[in-house]
Amino acid sequence: MRDGQSRSLPRVDHVVALPALDDARRAIGVGAVTELVRSALAEARRMTREGARCATADEIADRVTTLARDRVVQRTRRVINATGVVLHTNLGRAPLAKAAVEGLSETAGGYVSLEVEMATGRRGGRGVFAERALAELSGAEAALVVNNNAAAVLLALTSLASGRAVIVSRGELVEIGGGFRVPDVLRRSGARLVEVGTTNKTRESDYARALDAERDAAVVLRVHPGNFRQVGFVERPSLGALAGLAQERGVALVEDIGGGLLVELGVPGLEREPTVRSSVEAGADLVCFSTDKALGGPQGGVIVGRADLVDRLRSDPLARALRLGRLPLVALEATLPHILRGELDAVPGIDRIRYTSPHPKDMREDVVRAHVELRAVCEHIHLPLQSGSSRILRAMRRTYDRERYLDRVALIREHVPDVALTTDIIVGFPGETEEDFEQTLEVVEQVGYDGAFTFIFSPRRGTEAASVTEALVAHEVKVERLERLVAVVQRRAHERAQRFVGRTMEVLVEGVSRTDAARMRGRTRHNKVVNFSGLAVPGELALVDISAATSQTLVGEERIAARLLVEA
What we know:
Blueprint: H1 2-7, H2 12-16, H3 22-28, H4 30-49, H5 57-73, H6 98-107, H7 128-138, E1 142-146, H8 149-161, E2 165-169, E3 175-177, E4 180-181, H9 182-188, E5 192-196, H10 204-213, E6 217-223, H11 239-249, E7 252-258, H12 276-282, E8 286-290, E9 301-305, H13 307-314, H14 317-321, H15 326-340, H16 365-373, E10 380-382, H17 390-395, H18 402-415, E11 420-427, H19 434-447, E12 451-456, H20 475-497, E13 504-512, E14 520-524, E15 529-533, E16 541-549, E17 553-558, H21 560-567
Parallel strand pairs: 2-5, 2-6, 6-7, 7-8, 10-11, 11-12, 15-17
Antiparallel strand pairs: 1-9, 3-4, 8-9, 13-14, 13-16, 14-15, 16-17
Helix pairs in contact: 3-4, 3-5, 4-5, 6-15, 7-15, 10-11, 19-20
C-alpha cells in the first residue's frame, strides 16, 4: 500500500516545469532546481514509507522553493554594519573607496593590461604599480602582493625556512581567525616551530638561547597582537633589539603586523598600532600585512622589505599559486593613489597624517604642497640624510648627493616655513675621512634639524658594505665622531625648539607623562613631545600654551578656559 503511494509521487520533470518554480529557476538555474526536486522527492518517498500521506506536486514545489530561498540567502549581499566593529572580518572588512568601485566597474567586463607593457606590447610584470607604491609608502626596498596576509606569511616561511627552525615567542602563537593558528601556518610551510619564552614574558635572551641551540634556524618570526592586548606583568623585546640579534646571528627577521597601517592617522584607538614603515625602519627584513584592513583596499596580502629576500619569494613557485587576482589588483591599484596623494584629509575623524621617512628623490613639489593644501598632513617630515659627503653617499649607493638633498630641504622650507625636519645620520661608514665627517656637520648646522637618529656604522650581513675590508674606520674614531655629531644636533634642535615658546600648540594627548605622573604627555603636529598640566585625556586634542623647550621636549599648560567654553 505504502509502496504504491510512493509510486504516486510526481515525476521530477513535471515538478521542475511548474510555474511555481519560475523564480527558483531564474535565481539558481534549472540544473540546481532539478537537484533540489530530486532531494525533495526522496524525502517525501521516505516519509510515505514511514506512514505519511503522499505529497502532491504543489507541496514538493513549496519545499523546493524553501530550499532554493535558503541557497539564495547564502549569497554574499550588501548589509548594514551595526556591530560597532568598523573592520569586521565577517562583513568583508574595509569598504572599497569610490575610485576602486569605479575601477572594477570599468574593467571587470573587458580585458585589462594585467601583465602587458603598454609601451611595447610585450609581456610585463603583474602588479608593478601597486608594488612600487607599497614600497614607496613603507620605505622598503621592494614589495610583493599576494592574495591575503596568511598567504604572505606562508610564502615567506616556505621560501626562507622550509625544513629549518623558526623561532617564535609563546605569547605570539595566536589564532588569526577562522580557526587558523600561527603554528598551523608555520607547520604547513615545512618549517620547524621552536617556541621561546612564556605566554606573558619573552626576553631577548630567550631568542638568543634558542638561536644558539638551533643551528639550522633561518627565521625569527614576530607576530603583532592585533586583536588582543596583554597588560600587567608582561615583557617582550623591542623590534629593533630583535633586528640587531637576527642580523648578528645571520637569520631573517620576519614580522606579521596584520593591519597594514601605512600612514599615522592620528585616530584615537590606533595609537598603539604600528605602521608598516616603523617596522621597516626598526630593522625587520620582511614585513607582512593585509590590504583590506587599515589600508582600506580589497582582500590581499603584502610582503615588503629587503629586495634580495623579496626577489627570492617572487621566484618561488608557490608565489604563483598565491598571487593576487586581477579584480582585487585593479581595486588595490585604484586605492593606493589616495594614500600617495594624501586624500585621507577628507575622511571624517582623521585629524593627522604624518608622512615620514620619504626618500629625498620622492620629496617632489606636489608632495611638499600637500603639507600646505591638506589640513590633516602634519608639519613634520623625516628626511634621511645618512651623510653630508657626496663621496660617501655614492659609496652607500644613495641616488642623491649633498646638493640635491639641500635643494629638497630648500623646497620644503619654501612651502612649509615652520616645518619640523628630522633625519637619520650614519658615522664611520667605510672610507669616511675627517673631511667627509666635517661635511656632515656642516649640513647639520645649515639645515638645523629638530631632531636626528644617529648611528655608528655596523656591517649588515648580505650587503655590499659588509664585504668591505679596506679603509675601515676605527671604533674609537666612530665613537668620537658620534659624540661630536650628537652635540651639534642637540644644540641646533634646542635652538629650533625655542620658536615654540610662547605659542599655543594643538597637542594630541597620548597618556601620562613618563617624567611626571601629575602631567599628561602628547605630541604636536610638528611631532614634538609635550609634557603639560590640564584636564585632557588620551585621544583628545588639547590646546597647550608652551612655556619652555629643550632639544627634545616642550613644557606647557592646557588652556582650561578654552576647554570649559567649548564644553559649555
